[in-house]
Design goal:
Distance between the termini: 37 Å
Structural class: mainly alpha
Strand content: under 5%
Low-confidence stretches: none
Number of strands: 0
Largest sheet: none
Number of helices: 4
Number of domains: 1
Helix content: over 70%
Mean pLDDT: 90
Radius of gyration: 19 Å
């Protein structure tokens, strides 16, 4: 196999962006919208938390499940932050 026979996700998206076809335009618009949304989430992390909540609701998870999941993630983040502050290397 040649190195040119595949592309990772980033390369594939760049190839799609370079296609000058009207058929590629909806996908390009989607890429632009998703990129813009992620940039807003970087500026305001609360937006990404809300997006995760909405996605879990769309998947049919209960409010109780969503709350438990978010609490578990918060607890895990606090634990790993504590480990980093204590100099634990894993």
């Amino acid at each position: 196999m040649r190195e040119t026979d595949f592309a990772n996700t980033q390369k594939l998206l760049r190839i799609i962006q370079s296609i000058p076809s009207p058929k590629a335009e909806p996908f390009k618009q989607w890429l632009a919208r998703v990129g813009y949304e992620r940039m807003k989430e970087i500026a305001d992390p609360e937006l990404s938390i809300e997006r995760a909540r909405e996605n879990w609701q769309k998947l049919g998870h209960s409010e109780k499940w969503i709350q438990q999941r978010m609490t578990g993630q918060e607890t895990r983040n606090k634990l790993t932050d504590y480990w980093k502050e204590s100099g634990v290397v894993w």
